[in-house]
């Protein structure tokens, strides 16, 4: 597609359940980012991929959160044993160029709204 | 790590007036400063950006200024229109950290007709 695609757009789950959120970046974009946005706040960095590898996962809040990008394109954010505090909009973004001190524009998806009951 | 502070958190102006939003950053090595506009329930979209080798950039009614010494940058919107109403986020990109952005807390701009 023309833009970053995220699925599902909405996910309601119960506390303690496992959740997967998917991101399909713009074709050809090598860098992929996950952010979390709580109501009334700015996007909070979680993890960044350059190709298949997680280049920076310093924003993941704890070991319940994990992300993969096995073929360097689609990425999945995985949350185990969900807690009510995990409720937020999870945004994915992709970028054509990154690294070497150069930052390209980040293109965001519409987000996946996660609600943990 | 980088920390970005943004103010005001809310801003209300009359149509046709100017609006100014200010941000400060902590990491002097940050070298890229974009501004994103986010309408309710929508994705953040880039409206303008500036790199550390430039002091000012303008695009029609929107301008951004950067003061590297003071570590602050500002968004200026002139001749505001009701469709400018949205939440605006500033961000800073720490040097050589893969292009990740650290965002401010956002400013909710309301333009009253």
Low-confidence stretches of chain A: none
Calculate the terminal CA-CA distance of chain B, rounded to whole Å: 41 Å
CA-CA gap between termini of chain A: 33 Å
The averaged pLDDT of chain A comes out at 92
Oligomer: heterodimer
Beta percentage of chain B is: over 45%
Helix fraction bin of chain B: under 10%
The number of helical runs of chain B is 0
Number of strands of chain B: 11
Number of helices of chain A: 0
**Backbone CA Rg of chain B:** 13 Å
How would you classify the helix and strand content of chain A by structural class? mainly beta
Give the helices and strands of chain A as they follow along the chain. Answer: EEEEEEEEEEEEE
Helix content of chain A: under 10%
Q: Any idea what the shape of chain B is?
A: globular
Return the string of H and E elements of chain B: EEEEEEEEEEE
Mean pLDDT, all residues of chain B: 94
Using DSSP, what is the number of strands of chain A?
A: 13
Largest sheet of chain A: 7 strands, mixed
Largest inter-chain interface? A-B, 32 and 28 residues
Notable features of this structure?
heterodimer; A: 117 residues; mainly beta; seven-stranded mixed beta sheet; four-stranded antiparallel beta sheet; 50% strand; globular; B: 113 residues; six-stranded mixed beta sheet; five-stranded antiparallel beta sheet; 0% helix
Quick description:
The complex is a heterodimer of chains A (117) and B (113). Chain A is an all-beta fold and 117 residues long.
Explain what the structure shows.
The complex is a heterodimer of chains A (117) and B (113). Chain A has 117 residues and is mostly beta strands. Chain A has strands at 5-7, 10-13, 19-24, 31-37, 44-50, 53-56, 65-68, 75-79, 88-95, 98-99, 102-103, 107-108, 112-116. In chain A, strands 2, 4, 5, 6, 9, 12 and 13 form a 7-stranded mixed sheet that branches. A 4-stranded antiparallel sheet of chain A has the order 1-3-8-7, with no helix packed on it. In chain A, strands 10-11 form a two-stranded antiparallel ribbon. Chain A is globular, with a radius of gyration of 13 Å. Chain B is an all-beta fold and 113 residues long. Chain B is built from no helices and 11 strands. The mean pLDDT of chain B is 94. Chain A binds chain B through residues 4, 31, 33, 35, 40-45, 48, 50, 55-56, 58, 91, 95, 97-111, and chain B through 1, 4, 6, 31-32, 34, 36, 42-46, 49, 89, 91, 93, 95-106.
């Amino acid at each position: 597609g023309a833009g970053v695609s995220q699925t599902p757009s909405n996910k309601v789950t119960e506390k303690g359940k496992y959740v997967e959120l998917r991101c399909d970046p713009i074709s050809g974009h090598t860098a992929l980012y996950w952010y979390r946005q709580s109501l009334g706040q700015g996007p909070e960095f979680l993890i960044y991929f350059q190709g298949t590898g997680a280049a920076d996962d310093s924003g993941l809040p704890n070991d319940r959160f994990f992300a993969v990008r096995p073929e360097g394109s689609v990425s999945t954010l995985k949350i185990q044993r969900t807690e009510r505090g995990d409720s937020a909009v999870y945004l994915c973004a992709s970028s054509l160029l990154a690294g070497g001190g150069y930052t390209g524009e980040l293109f965001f998806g519409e987000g996946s709204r996660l609600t943990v009951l | 790590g980088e920390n970005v502070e943004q103010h005001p958190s809310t801003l209300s102006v009359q149509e046709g007036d100017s609006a100014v939003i200010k941000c400060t950053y902590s990491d002097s090595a940050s070298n890229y400063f974009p501004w994103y506009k986010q309408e309710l329930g929508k994705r953040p979209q880039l409206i303008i950006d500036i790199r550390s080798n430039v002091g000012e950039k303008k695009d029609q009614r929107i301008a951004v200024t950067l003061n590297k010494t003071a570590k602050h940058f500002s968004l200026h919107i002139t001749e505001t229109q009701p469709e400018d109403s949205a939440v605006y986020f500033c961000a800073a990109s720490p040097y050589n950290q893969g292009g990740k952005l650290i965002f401010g807390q956002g400013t909710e701009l309301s333009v009253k007709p």
